[in-house]
Amino acid sequence: MRIFSGIQPTGEIHIGNYLGAIKQWIELQKNNQCVFCIVDLHALTSDYEPDNLEESILNKAIAYLAAGVDPEKSIIFTQSKISEHIELFWYLNIVTPIGELQRMTQFKEKSEKQKKNANAGLLNYPVLMAADILLYDTEIVPVGEDQKQHVELSRDLAKKFNSRFGETFKIPKALIPKESFRIMSLTEPRKKMSKSDEKASYISLFDSPEEIKKKIMGATTDTGKKIKYDPEKKPGVSNLLMIRAGLEDRSVKEVEKEIEEKSYKELKEKTSQIIIDSLEPFRRKQRELESRREVYVQEVLNQGQRRAKILAESKMAEVRRKMGLS
Predict the structure, then answer these.
(1) Which pLDDT belongs to residue 203?
(2) Is residue 229 part of a domain?
(3) Contact yes or no for 259/228 (Cβ under 8 A)
(4) CA–CA separation, 247 and 269 (whole Å)
(5) Do residues 254 and 159 share a domain?
(6) In terms of domains, do 98 and 140 share one?
(7) Is residue 192 part of a domain?
(8) Cα separation of 83 and 103, whole Å?
(9) Domain annotation covers residue 186
(10) Could you tell me the CATH number of the domain that includes residue 282?
(11) Do residue 116 and residue 222 come from a single domain?
């Protein structure tokens, strides 16, 4: 099946990104045709440094490769290099009800968070995401529960377009893990872990052992002493249990049972060691790729761009023909 997913280049990839998305990618690429994009156009809707964007894209490609995305099995490329993304975005806008965009949870959250830069791009962000997905005849979109709404909009737009212009797009489905690893901020465990927050709030895939231990030992826990998975009453403890479960491929209940008689300190010490050990292969691979970033990593992106372009051009030729533009 055709799989599509992507992550913005700005900020560092953290364990929430890994457990919520990239870990699925690694498994999916074994038996499917995967298209993994660095979505730099989406990043433009937030404050960013133009001078650093190119370096950020290479860093994200290194993170993909270090985490196990295989360029021989998957297409890895930069979104803005394929102009068809923007072209399809515009065509999909004409079948997108404004009310649908105004109801999107992410628009409400982001426009509230960046009030001084509540731009139209934030409102149209989901339409561009739909273009990303539909452009490649995507069948499956691996996402966390919080991104399901965007895939639903993509499905709706595909159906609207097909109804108006004739059968053109496949109707994608969201693939949400049975064990949904929604990793929260270490400092504010009722908020989702975000690379745009302070560094103490998230664990980067490439944090040093010392940084990881310091962040986990300083993580916000809860009142009381009992270790129990209860996101509502014990969000801090529950988050640490979730991180462990995700990295160890176990259920949260299993992890909870194993450590329920221990102290918060012991929970943090064990969790930090598991994170350190789990991320060591990524740190090692990153160091190797850093020395080859200008040649090998750039060539991976160039090769991915060529492969993605073939798919995108073919689909857009069909779209234009159906719309009477060719």
Answers:
(1) 96
(2) yes
(3) no
(4) 15
(5) no
(6) yes
(7) no
(8) 28
(9) no
(10) 1.10.240.10
(11) no
pLDDT at 180: 65
Same structural domain for residues 140 and 217? Answer: no
Return all residues near 244 (Cβ < 8 A) that are at least 6 apart.
250, 255, 270, 271, 274
Interatomic CA distance for residues 183 and 170, integer angstroms = 31
Same domain, 281 and 303: no
Distance of alpha carbon 140 from alpha carbon 148, whole angstroms? 12
Q: Which residues of the chain have pLDDT under 50?
A: none
Query: Which residues form the catalytic set?
Result: 110, 192, 195
Contact residues for 114 (Cβ-Cβ < 8 A; gap 6+) = 46, 47, 122
Exposure string of 180-213, with b = 16+ CB inside 10 Å and e = fewer, is ebbbbbbbbbeebbbbebeeebbbbbbbeeeebb
Question: What pLDDT score was predicted for residue 319?
Answer: 98
Alpha carbons 241 and 267: distance in angstroms, whole number: 8
Q: How many CB atoms lie within 10 A of CB 162?
A: 16
pLDDT at 179: 64
In a shared domain, residues 152 and 249: no
CA-only gyration radius of the chain, Å? 20
177 and 232 together in one domain: no
pLDDT at 47: 81
Residue 281 placed within a domain: yes
Q: Who contacts 292 (Cβ-Cβ below 8 Å, separation ≥6)? A: none
Q: Are 49 and 166 found together in one domain?
A: yes
pTM exceeding the 0.90 threshold for the entire prediction: no
In which domain, by residue range, is 157 found? 2-181+293-323
| DSSP structural state of residue 251 | -
Query: What would the two tokens of residue 309 be?
Result: 């372009």
DSSP 35: E
Instruction: Tell me the per-residue pLDDT of 6-57, one tens digit each, with 9 for 90 and over.
Output: 999 988 899 998 988 899 899 999 999 999 999 999 999 888 889 999 999 9
Q: Taking Cα atoms as reference points, which of 317, 7, 278, 10 lies closest to residue 142?
A: 7
CATH number where 162 lies: 3.40.50.620
- Give the separation between CA 236 and CA 232, rounded to whole angstroms: 10
